[in-house]
Amino acid sequence: TPLDRDYGRPTPEDVSTNDVGIGVKDIGWGLPMGIGAVGLQDIAAKIRQGAGALEIQFPGAGAGQRTAQTPGMYGKEHRQALKELAEIAEVNLTTHSSFGIAGLSGMDRYGNFSPEYKKFALSEIKRAIDFAADVADGGPVVVHSGEFPRPISDEPWARDPKAPDGYRFIAYKEEPESAVIGIVDKRTGRVFHQVRKGVEVATPKWKVAEKDYTYVAEADYPRLGIRKGDLVHVKKGDYIDYWGRKVAPEDRVPDYDPETGRFKIEMKTWQDFVREAEEINKEKAAKLGRPLRYDEMVLPEEVYIKSTLAVNEAHAKGWALEYARYFDRYVNELRKLEKAYALWKEIEEKTPPEKRYKLAVGPARSELERLGIVPEEKKLPTELIEEQMRLIKREIEHAREASTAQEQQAKDAEMMRKYAESSRKYALRESYEGYAEAGIAAWEATRRKKTKRPIVIAIENLYPENYGGHPEELRNLVKNARKVMEDMLVKRGLSRKEAREAAKTHIKITLDTGHLNMWRKYWHDDPKKSVDENDAEFKKWMLKEVEKLAKEDMIGNVHLSDNFGYQDEHLIPGTGTAPIKEIVETLRKHGYKGPLTVEAGAAATTEPADIVGLYKTWRLFGSPVYAAHYLPHFAPKRTWTEIQYSYFGQTQPPYFIVGPYAPSEDWTLWSRVPLE
């Protein structure tokens, strides 16, 4: 009847969202605690507003605050109440660890790698794991990646021969020549030097063999495995010493020019260090008889810093020798003076005081004394000897202190050279171990608290500027973290197969569509194509990367967010440029059935309410307004655009009329039915 228009319940076919094949209940809402909600009442309100799934997100780290809450702010009673609320409402819950954590390499705000900060980050993740076990009964625990900054154009996936200038991704035009790479002291994690690729560096020209030859070793040389009496083959270009003997790169010596009397210096570019690193790795692999693992490789930045430190070490050793050059002579002179002093002291004491003036002599006269301008001063032998002894003691002290200081600097340079490592290599090793530890914590909590779903560390692709933002980097993090976790579990007594399955179950990926779309600003456009054609190429790349991850069954959680490819604006899905619908369709095609969480923080500012972001996402996936129509087989379903912002809609004319357009009410019955 006209009075119960559009009232009723959904028809069976309304449960699915058309072509993608997901229900409204499958699309959840990201709820940052302290921002999008304050406590349990706000969470309950979101459930009543229609959210079928919620990701409880914690912006805070350390001690919680009202606007940046942490899992620790919710006690046992609150956790139990939230768990029961979700069970009654049949709402699925997932968890997001602290927003303040960016990777597990231990990189702090100053760019150094700190074990203390890594421990802090792991503690925050473990708090989220406990919350997930108590409240969500398992499921994904999202962890931000962002292990360390790295030049985008240096990565293998950034290069493409078909792309303009050979780069598919590039941060800025000058990046390949001017990017900065950090060097870490792996004893402390401190970044002590930064290599700028575009700067030429003056280095010694190392002495190398000019032709092939052989010689018989006169002594053992362990660095190269040479024993006394061995026939050593020297190839053109091998490092040799001044006697023509083959030496390791660590013992190479600068070439000497006899005509100038100087050691040779040459200017090197970044490409020189790249070639040198390739040569070292090639020789190292040949010696081991197998391809090198990444952590075994020598990187160009390591060649650069070790070459520089070797020069510093040699410089310090040279000055140490210079300062100590006359040390033995000073010591011998001092001993002679001490004997002379004792002799003359005895003579002076035996000489009567009135005759001692005869023993007085003048020291080496100055120019003024020779000219007679300054009176010549005469002193006793012991006084002259004391003065000379005082001067020599000063020389000895200076030689000792200066030479020792230079030796210390040389030793520091030697140790720094030994422990210098590329920040990339150091950070990745720490990250693999960190995520493996987090995976172990998730595995333990799942078993200890007997959760319905396994707790999963879901590493999220964060921003493109840091490692982990690219799908290939995310894949690398997951694969290597799983390997480390597998080894840890084997040491605990699990079989290799059990450990491998546990690692695969508890370490996965959170795919964030908005963060993935931010790669658009670094996509190297083809100038021969239009903007639309370049956009289409980029979207094709996005879908290809998503499909690769989906095929490998690495994705354990998905964030649906949108932007225009520049910044992480958290637009409502479908209102930016990210191909979100196509991404979800790709995931479904490959069997993904995990959480889909809308992160549309901009809706809180640009819409009447933040929950509108969820409603618009439903609309994006084709979900109708659920109502049984009085002509269900013939009347079209109502859509969100008809009732989106108010009771009577804005984008469709109302199905009733008011004001001067309405018929006169003077000649109507009490039911307002016209008499005619």
Q: Identify the overall geometry.
A: elongated
> What oligomeric state is this?
single chain
Radius of gyration: 39 Å
Number of E-type strands = 17
Catalogue the unreliable spans. Answer: 1-17, 628-632
What would CATH call the architecture of the domain at 27-172 and 434-600?
A: Alpha-Beta Barrel
CATH class label of the domain at 27-172 and 434-600: Alpha Beta
Supply the helix-strand structural class.
Answer: alpha/beta
Using the coordinates shown, work out and report the CATH topology of the domain at 27-172 and 434-600.
TIM Barrel
Distance between the termini: 20 Å
How many strands, what sense, and barrel or not for the largest sheet?
8 strands, parallel, barrel
The number of helical runs is 18
CATH superfamily of the domain at 27-172 and 434-600: Divalent-metal-dependent TIM barrel enzymes
Strand content: 5-15%
Question: Which structural traits does this protein have?
Answer:
three-stranded antiparallel β-sheet; 18 helices; 12% strand; TIM Barrel; 676 residues; disordered N terminus; single chain; alpha/beta; eight-stranded parallel barrel
Could you characterize what this model shows?
The structure is a single chain. Among the domains are: 27-172 and 434-600, Divalent-metal-dependent TIM barrel enzymes (TIM Barrel, Alpha-Beta Barrel), CATH 3.20.20; 326-419, no CATH class. Helix 10 (423-449) packs across helix 11 (471-491). The chain is α/β, with parallel strands linked by helices. An eight-stranded parallel barrel has the order 1-2-3-4-14-15-16-17, surrounded by six helices. A three-stranded antiparallel β-sheet has the order 6-5-13. A two-stranded antiparallel ribbon has the order 7-12. The longest helix has 39 residues, at 381-419. The two termini are 20 Å apart. Helices cover 40% and strands 12% of the residues. The protein is built from 18 helices and 17 strands. Residues 1-17 and 628-632 have low confidence and may be disordered. The chain is elongated, with a radius of gyration of 39 Å.
